Amino acid sequence: MKAQTVDVRESMGRVLCCTIFRPGGKKLLAKGHVLSEEDVKLLQSEGMDQVWVTELEDGEIGEEEAVMEVAREMACGCLEIRLAAGGRANLVATEDCCVLVDDELLKQINCTSSIVISTMLNFSYAKAGQRISTVKSAPFAVPRAQLEAVVSILRERGPILQARPIRNPSIAVLYSDLHHADRARQLFENVMRQRLERFGVYPSFALAVVEEEASVARALGHLLRAKPTGVLIASTTAPAGPEDTIGRAMAKIGCHLERFLAPVEPGNLFLLGYKEDIPVISAPGCFRSAKPNVVDMVLPPVLARYRVSGWEVACLGHGGLLA
Fold first, then answer.
1. Tens-digit pLDDT profile for residues 39-61
2. What percentage of the chain reaches a pLDDT higher than 90?
3. Which of 42, 72, 139, 243 gives 20 to 30 Å between its CA and that of 14?
4. Contact at 8 Å (CB) between 285 and 268?
5. 67-92 pLDDT per residue, tens
6. Cβ within 8 Å of residue 48, ≥6 positions away
7. Mean pLDDT in the chain?
8. d(Cα 301, Cα 122) in Å, to the nearest integer?
9. Does a cis peptide bond (omega within 30 degrees of 0) precede residue 159?
10. What is the C-alpha to C-alpha distance for residues 112 and 121, in angstroms, rounded to an integer?
11. Residues with Cβ < 8 Å from 111, sequence gap 6 or more?
């Protein structure tokens, strides 16, 4: 591509090499914009005689067209694409959601083309109207062959990003203590409410029990019959593993134990099980403080009804040092 200054009347179909502003600093046309007949008339009405432009060569795609095509292929879910100045396409959540990211595919795309993609972290919580990703191209144009290669990869392996909506979630809470049923509730209820409020949700059901296998199993059974989106167990004890009271009670009611231990601090004694499709999470000590811990990392996908696997919990180590 070769940049040159041309008469405004001859600029239609060419690409602006710099952003044009009105007197006073208000933007008129953005850099990278392909000039249309209406743009030419607009520039003339502003008293401009010449503009700095370039032309697409054979085998090139304009930056705006390129980023929009990649944005359409790379993501799905409750989002919309908004073209922005400078060869950018922003992806914006249309509902409260959990952002799911295929990190390996993202790295592959970012290493192999004239287009780069930035996203929120995997499992992030995003509110409606929040930007969750941006697609950016090299200035002005992208080689057609590179764009076609990226689009082909995305169609075969994509999407990179999912905006999974969070709709009408319900969380059940079981408080447990070795000696007094209500002690855990008294200690943890306020922090539990603060933690859930970050994600726009409140406890829908709550029980308190003495931490004994049969009692915990019975209480879990009651909570699960309500079909909550997820169950959180707030215990005053720190178990050594699934063979302790909470883990045995989960197994007793038929929970599949998906994962014990998370590479996250605070929250390494995390225990995740599933009763059918309902996640049951024990995170001892994580409800003593409202500071971020492993519960905050897994709540967004739980609220979005995404089944978190043991492998995905193991992947939380990168960025898992929270305090």
1. 888 888 888 888 877 777 788 88
2. 72
3. 72
4. no
5. 999 999 999 999 999 999 888 999 99
6. 8, 20
7. 92
8. 9
9. yes
10. 21
11. none
Terminal CA-CA length for the chain: 50
In SS3 terms, the chain reads as CCCEEEEHHHCCCCEECCCEECCCCCEEECCCCECCHHHHHHHHHCCCCEEEEECCCCCEEEHHHHHHHHHHHHEEECEEEEEECCCEEEEEECCCEEEEECHHHHHHHHHCCCEEEEECCCCEEECCCCEEEEEEECCCEEEHHHHHHHHHHHHHHCCCEEEEECCCCCEEEEEEECCCHHHHHHHHHHHHHHHHHCCCCCEEEEEEEECCHHHHHHHHHHHHHCCCCEEEEEECCCCCCCCCHHHHHHHHCCCEEEEECCCCECCCCCEEEEECCEEEEECCCCCCCCCCCHHHHHHHHHHCCCCCCHHHHHHHHCCCECC
Preceding omega of 266 cis (within 30 degrees of 0): yes
Q: Which of 168, 169, 186 is nearest to 177 (CA)?
A: 186
Q: How far apart are CA 77 and CA 133, in angstroms?
A: 13
Joined tokens for residue 276: 């059918």
Structure-model confidence comparison of residues 182 and 241, the more confident one = 182
Reported as a single tens digit per residue, the pLDDT across 163-176 is 999 999 999 999 99
pTM above 0.90, yes or no: no
The answer to whether 215 and 221 are in contact (CB under 8 A) is no
